[in-house]
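Hi P.,

Sorry for the delay on this. The queue was packed all week, but I finally got your sequence through. Input first:
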Amino acid sequence: MRQRVEIVKTLYREADILILDEPTAVLTPQEIEGIFEIMELLRSQGKSIIFITHKLKEVLHIADRITVLRGGRVVGEADPSTSTQAELAAMMVGRAVILTVEKEPATPADIVLDVHDLRAKNDLGDPALNGVTFDVRSGEIVGVAGVQGNGQTELVEVITGLRHADGGKVRIGGADMTNATPRRVTQEAESCHVPEDRHAHGMVDAYSVADNLVLNTYNLPPYSRGLTVNQQAIRAHATELVAEYDVRTPGIDTPGGSLSGGNQQKMVVAREFSRPIKLLIAAQPTRGIDVGSIEFIHNQIVDKRDEGVAVLVVSSELDEIMALADRI
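Then the structure:
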């Protein structure tokens, strides 16, 4: 709804030039069609529109001309009538990108996450979860599909201890984690959480990359002992993860907020995936990031599944859910 308000504000001002930066990132397919209808109407009225997006299907559908940026430079132009998603992706990343998720069939084992008759309210005090029941087993990816605003956000927040449940049970690894603290869920239940809004819940913009990479383990050895912080261990940890997860940053002391969206997401993923975990919860794991980073994060999620981790993926991108999930 916030996104729609921003677009309405721009239209109300009757601007001749519209710059739309990722306007469809949080919209439903139906809302996106509505935006495109408005854009086509504005184009017919002589307005100029710059449409910035990582979504290849959308740019091929709506654009008259496509310009591709990589590393701060124009690396090519394309005609949407003759270009393909694969060609655009290769231009964006600088190499061929596999746009499908390659994975073997799942081999599910024991139940790790057991949610039963879960009930909770949203921020407005209205019911958001109304008797939700499902489970996730080790070695499988369960996808939660749905239009944004239908309880997915609240579901993840209740499971991870960020929102109070009004009823029902959340069990992780057999232990009752209903209304447990986030630290209990993270450390005791050995779970990790990639939040849908990385800025609000996944990182501290002003903190360095190194400090962001220990946000959920800073109180544990080797990063601290009592009140003493071990900067050497934190820096060594950061150097290792930046290399392993290909986080493009000038250095580990760079503020996390100054990285690109894709690299911020890889930083959050690196922190969450690098611990021993039994449950992985990823909400909108590829929102607003480039195709190269999407490919990387999808592969990391599948790798975790293959290691025997139980994976819950929440996404409003149906293509993503269909490609990643073993059950939906």
